[in-house]
Amino acid sequence: MVNTLYNYEGFDKDIKEAFQAIIEQYHLKFKRVGEGRYELSNGKCIIRFVYDRGDVGVLLKNPKDNEDEFGNDVAMIFKYLHPELDEYEGIEYNPRRQLIDEATKCTYLGNILNGDFTWMPGFLYELKKSTALIRYIKNELDLDNPIYLQFMADDPSWFENIEQYIKINNIDISGYM
After folding, report:
1. What region, left, alpha or beta, does residue 18 occupy, with left being phi > 0 and alpha being psi -120 to 50 degrees?
2. Is residue 111 within 8 Å of 120, Cβ to Cβ?
3. Full DSSP string of the chain
């Protein structure tokens, strides 16, 4: 049961249950770091958990990074490293289901859980590019443009379509990066 906007009773228990196999396999230690915020860590990788108004955030962080850096979204990392396995199904506002889905994604990210962050520069470049494409859509496309409408409807085809649109029309998006 939700008792605040940023936590719910049993969040810690749900994390431990959903991630039990990963906790055991990668020797992760569980820690509460604030109201509705938890971490799993093994010294090689940190998995951070946050809850915000029905949505669970699961982030991966290199423990060598600055403490102020919060981490990167597991779903985005999974999509970057395993696009062939990514099946976008929209957001389900069921915290337990979200945790199970994110734990499943983490089973494919064992290299990261063992401390391999060599993929990070490519990921950050793609993240920057995606952000630039979103800025372009929001600032330049007409409100009735099919790509704008796809983006606003959370239709994942917007990404491929805006990349094609940018290429066909020879548009430079570097100013949006």
Report:
1. alpha
2. no
3. -B-SSS-BTTHHHHHHHHTHHHHHHTT-EEEEEETTEEEEE-SS-EEEEEEETTEEEEEEE-TTS-TT---EEHHHHHHHH-TTT---------HHHHHHHHHHHHTT-HHHHTT--TTHHHHHHHHHHHHHHHHHHHHHS-TT-HHHHHHHTT-THHHHHHHHHHHHTT---GGG-
Q: Per the confidence metrics, is the pTM higher than 0.90?
A: no
- Tokens representing 139 are 């600032």
Which residue's structure tokens are 């945790």?
99
Residue 109: pLDDT over 80: yes
